[in-house]
Amino acid sequence: MRTTTRSTAILLLLVAATAACGTSAAQTGDAQPTTGGALTFATAVEPDCLDPAVSARDVTGVINRNIFDSLVRQAPDGSFHPWLAERWETAPDGRAYTFHLRSGVRFHDGTTL
């Protein structure tokens, strides 16, 4: 009798664990994105400020990438590609750049850049 009770308990535990491992709509790709809500992002340390020109801390860059867009992005191979700027020109002396911004870019409140 005791073996039967233990076997039943183990079987029920396995069934519950297997059911908990089922796939949801989000896992199968059927989920639709939603607007709004909150995103919680944890880091071991806090950024010392939110000005990317002032802080040299890595965590500031990680946080700021979620807040600010850049004119260009740097690929893993070190090359630069358009981001907010569609293209850019470098002055012959290499001391000035002219950036041509993408159209349709908006701030978080909807105003046009």
TrEMBL record:
Domain Solute-binding protein family: 80-112
Signal peptide stretch: 1-25
Record keywords, A-Z: Signal, Transport
Family: Belongs to the bacterial solute-binding protein 5 family.
Protein name (record): ABC transporter substrate-binding protein
Originating organism: Micromonospora fiedleri
